[in-house]
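Pipeline run #58 for the internal structure catalog. This entry was flagged by the ingest filter as a single-chain record with no existing model, so it goes straight to prediction. Upstream metadata was stripped on purpose; only the residue string is passed forward. Reviewer on rotation: M.T. Logging verbosity set to normal.
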Amino acid sequence: MPDLSTGKDFNGESFSAIYTTTVTVSGGVAAHGRVSGRARSADGVLDLDLSMPGELGGDGQGTNPEQLFAAAFGACFHGALSLVARQAALDPATIMVEATAAFGRDPGDGGYVLRVDLVVKWPGISPETAAPLIEKANSLCPYARMAGEGTPTTITLAP
């Protein structure tokens, strides 16, 4: 198991991957510019149909990128908050993270943008106790960092 910590204890000169996964999206007819088809991870654990949500005119029979992103962001933040809660000798069992991803128009340039809202539900924990732990989880969660700072991305055409 890799040595994971909450400390900012890596001083490398370049990115150091701890885990890598690949998901391939293929098939479907996306004449409307929205997703359709199938998403499958290299190990086959994730394998699902994609479709446009009913609210956007699709059949809503599959999942969509916004749902997948909300699930991933919520799961990552939940994990980070659970870790810092345990370090503070608090039981993370009742922590819930509700992640809402909204797809819409950017008023600045008219293009598309994604907005994410996280709501932490932690019964029995005071706001004064939760606030610094939520802040620490926010600094640890790679999805929160990506949302706040951007993420290095490369796009290439395969030969």
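catalog note: The mean pLDDT is 88.
catalog note: The chain has three helices and five strands.
status: ready for reviewer M.T.
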